[in-house]
Amino acid sequence: MALMNHVYLNGQYLPLSEARVPVLDRGFIFGDGVYEVIPVYSRQPFRLREHLQRLQHSLDAIRLANPHSLAEWSALVQPIIAQAEDEDQGIYLQVTRGPAPRDQAFPEGVTPTVFIMAMPLPAPSPETIEHGVAAITAVDDRWQHCDIKSTSLLANVLLRQRSVDAGCAETILLRDGYLTEGSASNIFIVHDGVLLAPPKSHLILPGVTYDVVIELADQLGLPTSIRPIPEQELRSADEIWLTSSTKEVTAVTHLDGQAIGAGTPGPVYRQLHAAYQAYKHHTMRGHGR
Ligand code: PMP
Predict the structure, then answer these.
(1) How far is the CA of 233 from the CAs of 116, 136, 173, in angstroms?
(2) Rg of the Cα trace of the chain?
(3) Span from the CA of 186 to the centroid of ligand 1 (angstroms)
(4) Using N-to-C axis directions, what is the helix angle for 208-220 and 267-282, rounded to 10°?
(5) pLDDT per residue as tens digits for the range 157-206
(6) Which of 52, 153, 239, 255 is least enclosed, having the fewest CB within 10 Å?
(7) 280 counts as catalytic
(8) Would you say the pTM of this structure is higher than 0.85?
(9) What is the maximal distance between C-alpha atoms in the chain?
(10) Quick one: which H or E segment has residue 77?
Protein backbone atom coordinates (compact mmCIF):
# COMPACT_ATOMS: atom_id res chain seq x y z
CA MET A 1 0.00 0.00 0.00
CA ALA A 2 1.38 3.41 -0.95
CA LEU A 3 0.89 4.96 2.48
CA MET A 4 2.08 2.01 4.61
CA ASN A 5 2.97 3.12 8.15
CA HIS A 6 2.63 6.79 7.40
CA VAL A 7 1.92 9.42 10.03
CA TYR A 8 0.12 12.74 9.67
CA LEU A 9 2.00 15.95 10.44
CA ASN A 10 0.66 19.44 9.71
CA GLY A 11 -1.25 18.68 6.54
CA GLN A 12 0.93 15.87 5.18
CA TYR A 13 0.97 12.07 5.32
CA LEU A 14 4.58 10.88 5.40
CA PRO A 15 6.77 8.05 6.75
CA LEU A 16 7.46 8.34 10.51
CA SER A 17 11.20 8.53 9.81
CA GLU A 18 10.61 11.66 7.73
CA ALA A 19 8.30 13.44 10.21
CA ARG A 20 10.16 16.38 11.79
CA VAL A 21 9.13 18.99 14.35
CA PRO A 22 11.19 22.16 14.95
CA VAL A 23 13.12 21.98 18.24
CA LEU A 24 11.47 25.19 19.41
CA ASP A 25 8.05 23.56 19.22
CA ARG A 26 6.35 24.35 22.54
CA GLY A 27 5.44 20.69 22.86
CA PHE A 28 9.16 19.91 23.07
CA ILE A 29 10.18 22.95 25.12
CA PHE A 30 7.27 23.17 27.61
CA GLY A 31 5.09 20.08 27.13
CA ASP A 32 2.57 22.72 25.97
CA GLY A 33 0.15 20.40 24.24
CA VAL A 34 -2.65 17.86 24.59
CA TYR A 35 -3.24 14.41 23.15
CA GLU A 36 -5.64 11.49 22.73
CA VAL A 37 -5.30 7.74 22.30
CA ILE A 38 -8.22 6.19 20.44
CA PRO A 39 -8.52 2.41 20.21
CA VAL A 40 -9.40 0.97 16.82
CA TYR A 41 -10.80 -2.55 16.50
CA SER A 42 -11.00 -4.21 13.08
CA ARG A 43 -10.29 -0.72 11.68
CA GLN A 44 -13.35 0.72 13.45
CA PRO A 45 -12.55 3.55 15.90
CA PHE A 46 -13.96 3.00 19.39
CA ARG A 47 -15.92 5.99 20.73
CA LEU A 48 -14.21 8.43 18.37
CA ARG A 49 -16.73 11.20 19.10
CA GLU A 50 -16.13 10.96 22.86
CA HIS A 51 -12.34 11.08 22.39
CA LEU A 52 -12.65 14.13 20.13
CA GLN A 53 -14.98 15.79 22.66
CA ARG A 54 -12.39 15.20 25.38
CA LEU A 55 -9.74 16.65 23.07
CA GLN A 56 -11.93 19.76 22.78
CA HIS A 57 -12.16 19.93 26.59
CA SER A 58 -8.36 19.68 26.90
CA LEU A 59 -7.81 22.34 24.21
CA ASP A 60 -10.34 24.68 25.87
CA ALA A 61 -8.60 24.17 29.22
CA ILE A 62 -5.20 25.20 27.80
CA ARG A 63 -6.80 28.02 25.75
CA LEU A 64 -5.72 26.65 22.39
CA ALA A 65 -8.18 26.93 19.48
CA ASN A 66 -9.04 23.54 17.99
CA PRO A 67 -7.30 23.49 14.58
CA HIS A 68 -9.96 21.09 13.19
CA SER A 69 -13.67 20.43 13.37
CA LEU A 70 -14.97 17.06 14.50
CA ALA A 71 -15.63 16.13 10.87
CA GLU A 72 -12.12 17.17 9.84
CA TRP A 73 -10.53 15.11 12.62
CA SER A 74 -12.62 12.07 11.61
CA ALA A 75 -11.44 12.50 8.00
CA LEU A 76 -7.78 13.03 9.01
CA VAL A 77 -7.57 9.81 11.04
CA GLN A 78 -9.18 7.65 8.33
CA PRO A 79 -6.08 7.18 6.10
CA ILE A 80 -3.99 6.40 9.21
CA ILE A 81 -6.49 3.73 10.26
CA ALA A 82 -6.71 2.33 6.73
CA GLN A 83 -2.95 1.95 6.17
CA ALA A 84 -1.85 0.81 9.66
CA GLU A 85 -0.21 -2.60 9.79
CA ASP A 86 -2.73 -4.14 12.19
CA GLU A 87 -6.51 -4.27 12.12
CA ASP A 88 -6.46 -3.30 15.82
CA GLN A 89 -4.42 -0.22 16.66
CA GLY A 90 -4.22 2.80 18.88
CA ILE A 91 -4.54 6.14 17.12
CA TYR A 92 -2.36 8.68 18.89
CA LEU A 93 -3.06 12.32 18.14
CA GLN A 94 -1.37 15.37 19.57
CA VAL A 95 -1.81 19.12 19.25
CA THR A 96 0.82 21.51 20.58
CA ARG A 97 0.86 25.31 20.67
CA GLY A 98 3.45 25.17 17.87
CA PRO A 99 7.00 26.47 17.31
CA ALA A 100 7.90 29.90 18.74
CA PRO A 101 10.85 31.69 20.40
CA ARG A 102 11.17 30.34 23.94
CA ASP A 103 8.94 32.33 26.28
CA GLN A 104 6.29 30.97 28.64
CA ALA A 105 3.66 33.49 27.50
CA PHE A 106 1.45 32.41 24.60
CA PRO A 107 3.01 33.38 21.24
CA GLU A 108 1.00 35.47 18.77
CA GLY A 109 -0.01 34.13 15.37
CA VAL A 110 1.60 30.70 15.71
CA THR A 111 0.16 27.66 13.92
CA PRO A 112 -0.43 24.69 16.25
CA THR A 113 1.42 21.46 15.46
CA VAL A 114 -0.88 18.53 14.66
CA PHE A 115 0.47 14.99 14.70
CA ILE A 116 -1.34 11.65 14.23
CA MET A 117 0.11 8.14 14.19
CA ALA A 118 -1.02 4.54 14.61
CA MET A 119 0.49 2.50 17.46
CA PRO A 120 0.25 -1.22 18.19
CA LEU A 121 -2.67 -2.02 20.50
CA PRO A 122 -2.03 -5.41 22.08
CA ALA A 123 -5.18 -6.67 23.82
CA PRO A 124 -4.71 -7.78 27.46
CA SER A 125 -3.17 -11.26 27.39
CA PRO A 126 -5.17 -14.36 28.37
CA GLU A 127 -2.85 -14.60 31.40
CA THR A 128 -3.74 -11.07 32.51
CA ILE A 129 -7.45 -11.80 32.09
CA GLU A 130 -7.10 -15.08 34.03
CA HIS A 131 -4.83 -13.91 36.87
CA GLY A 132 -5.05 -10.11 36.93
CA VAL A 133 -2.12 -7.84 37.69
CA ALA A 134 -0.31 -6.42 40.73
CA ALA A 135 -0.23 -2.71 41.59
CA ILE A 136 1.39 -0.46 44.15
CA THR A 137 0.06 2.74 45.71
CA ALA A 138 1.72 6.15 45.82
CA VAL A 139 0.85 9.65 46.90
CA ASP A 140 -0.73 11.53 43.98
CA ASP A 141 1.69 14.43 43.70
CA ARG A 142 0.51 15.62 40.28
CA TRP A 143 -0.86 19.10 39.61
CA GLN A 144 -4.50 20.13 40.10
CA HIS A 145 -5.58 19.84 36.44
CA CYS A 146 -5.53 16.08 35.92
CA ASP A 147 -8.71 16.35 33.80
CA ILE A 148 -6.58 17.86 31.01
CA LYS A 149 -5.04 15.18 28.82
CA SER A 150 -1.77 17.07 28.62
CA THR A 151 1.48 15.89 27.08
CA SER A 152 3.17 17.29 30.24
CA LEU A 153 3.31 13.82 31.77
CA LEU A 154 6.48 13.92 33.88
CA ALA A 155 4.66 13.23 37.17
CA ASN A 156 2.78 10.31 35.56
CA VAL A 157 6.04 9.01 34.07
CA LEU A 158 7.77 9.03 37.48
CA LEU A 159 4.76 7.43 39.21
CA ARG A 160 4.38 4.74 36.54
CA GLN A 161 8.10 3.90 36.71
CA ARG A 162 7.75 3.17 40.44
CA SER A 163 5.41 0.28 39.61
CA VAL A 164 7.78 -0.93 36.86
CA ASP A 165 10.62 -0.92 39.41
CA ALA A 166 8.40 -2.94 41.77
CA GLY A 167 7.53 -5.44 39.00
CA CYS A 168 3.92 -4.21 38.97
CA ALA A 169 1.52 -3.13 36.24
CA GLU A 170 0.23 0.15 37.68
CA THR A 171 0.65 2.76 40.39
CA ILE A 172 -2.65 3.59 42.09
CA LEU A 173 -2.75 7.14 43.41
CA LEU A 174 -4.04 8.53 46.70
CA ARG A 175 -4.52 12.22 47.32
CA ASP A 176 -5.30 13.42 50.85
CA GLY A 177 -6.25 9.86 51.80
CA TYR A 178 -8.64 9.33 48.86
CA LEU A 179 -8.32 7.27 45.68
CA THR A 180 -7.89 9.37 42.55
CA GLU A 181 -6.83 7.13 39.64
CA GLY A 182 -3.89 5.16 38.26
CA SER A 183 -0.79 6.71 36.67
CA ALA A 184 -2.30 5.82 33.27
CA SER A 185 -5.75 4.43 34.08
CA ASN A 186 -8.96 4.96 36.03
CA ILE A 187 -9.68 2.75 39.03
CA PHE A 188 -12.90 1.00 40.09
CA ILE A 189 -13.47 -1.09 43.19
CA VAL A 190 -16.16 -3.58 44.22
CA HIS A 191 -17.33 -3.58 47.84
CA ASP A 192 -20.13 -5.91 48.98
CA GLY A 193 -21.37 -6.26 45.40
CA VAL A 194 -21.44 -2.49 44.74
CA LEU A 195 -19.24 -1.05 41.99
CA LEU A 196 -17.58 2.15 43.21
CA ALA A 197 -15.53 4.80 41.43
CA PRO A 198 -14.36 8.29 42.31
CA PRO A 199 -16.42 11.05 40.68
CA LYS A 200 -15.06 13.02 37.75
CA SER A 201 -13.29 16.16 38.93
CA HIS A 202 -10.16 18.16 38.19
CA LEU A 203 -8.24 15.42 40.03
CA ILE A 204 -8.80 12.62 37.50
CA LEU A 205 -8.82 12.16 33.75
CA PRO A 206 -12.41 11.59 32.59
CA GLY A 207 -11.73 8.21 31.00
CA VAL A 208 -13.69 7.16 27.95
CA THR A 209 -13.40 3.56 29.20
CA TYR A 210 -14.66 4.76 32.64
CA ASP A 211 -17.89 5.90 30.95
CA VAL A 212 -18.21 2.63 29.02
CA VAL A 213 -17.79 0.60 32.23
CA ILE A 214 -20.47 2.61 34.06
CA GLU A 215 -22.86 2.23 31.11
CA LEU A 216 -22.24 -1.53 30.93
CA ALA A 217 -22.67 -1.87 34.72
CA ASP A 218 -26.04 -0.10 34.44
CA GLN A 219 -27.09 -2.40 31.60
CA LEU A 220 -26.10 -5.43 33.69
CA GLY A 221 -28.10 -4.09 36.63
CA LEU A 222 -25.01 -3.87 38.86
CA PRO A 223 -25.44 -1.42 41.73
CA THR A 224 -22.97 1.43 41.27
CA SER A 225 -22.01 4.34 43.46
CA ILE A 226 -19.86 7.20 42.19
CA ARG A 227 -18.41 8.84 45.29
CA PRO A 228 -15.09 9.58 47.02
CA ILE A 229 -13.26 6.39 48.06
CA PRO A 230 -11.09 6.55 51.20
CA GLU A 231 -7.80 4.64 51.22
CA GLN A 232 -9.13 2.06 53.69
CA GLU A 233 -11.98 1.18 51.35
CA LEU A 234 -9.51 0.68 48.49
CA ARG A 235 -7.32 -1.62 50.58
CA SER A 236 -10.25 -3.68 51.88
CA ALA A 237 -12.01 -3.93 48.49
CA ASP A 238 -13.34 -7.29 47.27
CA GLU A 239 -12.17 -6.38 43.77
CA ILE A 240 -10.09 -3.64 42.17
CA TRP A 241 -10.08 -2.95 38.41
CA LEU A 242 -8.12 -0.58 36.27
CA THR A 243 -9.57 0.75 33.02
CA SER A 244 -8.06 2.47 30.01
CA SER A 245 -8.29 2.50 26.24
CA THR A 246 -5.23 0.25 26.00
CA LYS A 247 -5.75 -1.96 29.09
CA GLU A 248 -9.55 -2.24 28.66
CA VAL A 249 -10.81 -3.60 32.02
CA THR A 250 -8.08 -5.39 33.98
CA ALA A 251 -8.37 -6.89 37.45
CA VAL A 252 -5.84 -5.77 40.08
CA THR A 253 -5.40 -8.83 42.29
CA HIS A 254 -2.56 -7.62 44.52
CA LEU A 255 -2.03 -4.18 46.01
CA ASP A 256 1.27 -3.34 47.74
CA GLY A 257 1.89 -7.11 48.01
CA GLN A 258 -1.49 -7.84 49.68
CA ALA A 259 -4.09 -10.05 47.96
CA ILE A 260 -7.30 -8.27 46.96
CA GLY A 261 -10.28 -10.55 47.72
CA ALA A 262 -9.19 -14.09 46.91
CA GLY A 263 -6.16 -12.78 44.98
CA THR A 264 -7.79 -13.70 41.67
CA PRO A 265 -10.10 -11.73 39.35
CA GLY A 266 -13.50 -11.63 41.05
CA PRO A 267 -16.98 -12.55 39.83
CA VAL A 268 -18.08 -8.97 39.15
CA TYR A 269 -14.94 -8.41 37.06
CA ARG A 270 -15.70 -11.52 35.02
CA GLN A 271 -19.22 -10.31 34.34
CA LEU A 272 -18.11 -6.81 33.32
CA HIS A 273 -15.17 -8.12 31.29
CA ALA A 274 -17.49 -10.35 29.26
CA ALA A 275 -19.85 -7.40 28.67
CA TYR A 276 -16.91 -5.24 27.59
CA GLN A 277 -15.73 -7.85 25.08
CA ALA A 278 -19.25 -8.13 23.67
CA TYR A 279 -19.42 -4.35 23.36
CA LYS A 280 -16.03 -4.30 21.61
CA HIS A 281 -17.25 -6.85 19.08
CA HIS A 282 -20.32 -4.73 18.47
CA THR A 283 -17.92 -1.87 17.57
CA MET A 284 -15.91 -4.16 15.30
CA ARG A 285 -19.02 -4.89 13.30
CA GLY A 286 -19.29 -1.18 12.64
CA HIS A 287 -21.98 -0.41 15.22
CA GLY A 288 -19.75 1.57 17.57
CA ARG A 289 -20.06 5.25 18.24
N1 PMP B 1 -6.23 8.33 33.73
C2 PMP B 1 -5.02 8.56 33.20
C3 PMP B 1 -4.04 9.35 33.99
C4 PMP B 1 -4.69 8.07 31.92
O5 PMP B 1 -3.48 8.32 31.39
C6 PMP B 1 -5.64 7.27 31.22
C7 PMP B 1 -5.31 6.69 29.88
N8 PMP B 1 -5.24 7.66 28.90
C9 PMP B 1 -6.90 7.06 31.80
C10 PMP B 1 -7.16 7.60 33.06
C11 PMP B 1 -7.96 6.26 31.09
O12 PMP B 1 -8.56 7.01 30.05
P13 PMP B 1 -9.20 6.28 28.78
O14 PMP B 1 -10.16 5.26 29.31
O15 PMP B 1 -9.91 7.35 28.05
O16 PMP B 1 -8.08 5.66 28.03
Answers:
(1) 40, 15, 14
(2) 19
(3) 6
(4) 110
(5) 999 999 999 999 999 999 999 999 999 999 999 999 999 999 999 999 99
(6) 153
(7) no
(8) yes
(9) 58
(10) helix 70-83
Span 223-270, pLDDT tens digits: 999 999 999 999 999 999 999 999 999 999 999 999 999 999 999 999
Q: Say if CB 228 and CB 201 are below 8 A apart.
A: no
Q: For residue 43, give the DSSP letter.
A: T
CB proximity list for 208: less than 8 A, separation 6 or greater: 46, 47, 50, 51, 54, 245
37 CA → ligand 1 middle, Å: 9
Nearest to 114 by CA among 151, 61, 82, 83: 151
Helix, strand, coil distribution of the chain in percent, nearest 5: 30, 30, 40
Domains in the chain, CATH or no CATH each: 6-120 (3.30.470.10), 126-284 (3.20.10.10)
Mutation to probe ligand 1, out of 147, 242, 245 (largest number of atoms < 8 A from CB): 245
What values do phi and psi take at 211, rounded to 5? -65, -40
58 CB under 6 A from ligand 1?
no
Does ligand 1 have an atom closer than 6 angstroms to the CB of 150? no
